[in-house]
TrEMBL record:
Residues 25-221 form the Mitochondria-eating protein C-terminal domain. Pfam families: MIEAP. This is Mitochondria-eating protein C-terminal domain-containing protein.
Length: 224
């Protein structure tokens, strides 16, 4: 069965491909901000007086999720590619370089590599719990995580981990851009509660198709 035919006749993969479309992910990312983020903000505001501190906590979660997802997706892809290359070299009696494969087997390797991206999509749901644990471990080094058991916060964390993992398993990965205090107003961010000429604090990251790529969803910043 050809590569394209296998994809065409695989309903599960077709569903996954739709889930991994950048426009679908960007829409869900906006919904995460408008729903889970707002609910978590209200829940956390009961415990913390400063809105800026609450926003910072929520921003740290989504950016930690992105950082861990980006790192782990890179490791995963590298390991899968190395495994395919190693197996093909062994089948050809080689143990050193891909360059020593025949032209035919180079083509097969390239085909296998392209299908690795589909394999990652199929395996994606099984990786998310492990990614979540890594995110929480990462955050616990510098932050109090007593809030993690709150209902709305838990839903927000789950949403951040799932969506950033989807972003980072694309090729190239999607990109999240933040801003910092005193940055000038830019096309990447819209105002939160008040407008102004420079940033007071970042509320929500900007989502780009890839690093230095076009904006899919503007971020949100409190301006001054």
């Amino acid at each position: 069965m050809s590569n394209e035919l296998w994809k065409k006749d695989n309903p599960k993969l077709l569903d996954l491909n739709n889930m991994y479309k950048p426009e679908v992910i960007s829409k869900r990312f906006l919904e995460l901000y408008e729903n889970e983020w707002r609910s978590a903000f209200q829940e956390l505001s009961i415990q913390q007086e400063s809105q800026e501190h609450v926003a910072e906590t929520l921003l740290n979660i989504v950016m930690a999720s992105y950082s861990v997802s980006l790192r782990m997706s890179g490791f995963q892809l590298q390991n899968l590619q190395s495994s395919v290359k190693r197996d093909m070299l062994l089948l050809n009696g080689k143990e050193d370089h891909l360059d020593e494969l025949s032209e035919r087997n180079k083509t097969l390797y390239e085909l296998a590599t392209s299908n690795i991206m589909d394999l990652r999509k199929i395996l994606s749901p099984t990786a998310i719990p492990a990614i979540k644990n890594l995110v929480l471990d990462n955050l616990s080094k510098d932050h109090d995580l007593s809030y993690r058991k709150e209902t709305k916060m838990a839903a927000y964390i789950d949403g951040c981990v799932e969506l950033t993992w989807l972003m980072c398993t694309l090729d190239p990965p999607m990109h999240l851009e933040t801003c910092k205090s005193q940055d000038p107003a830019s096309k990447y961010f819209r105002s939160y509660a008040k407008s102004g000429k420079c940033v007071q604090y970042c509320v929500w990251p900007c989502l780009c198709l890839h690093s230095n790529g076009p904006i899919l969803k503007k971020g949100v910043a409190q301006m001054t």
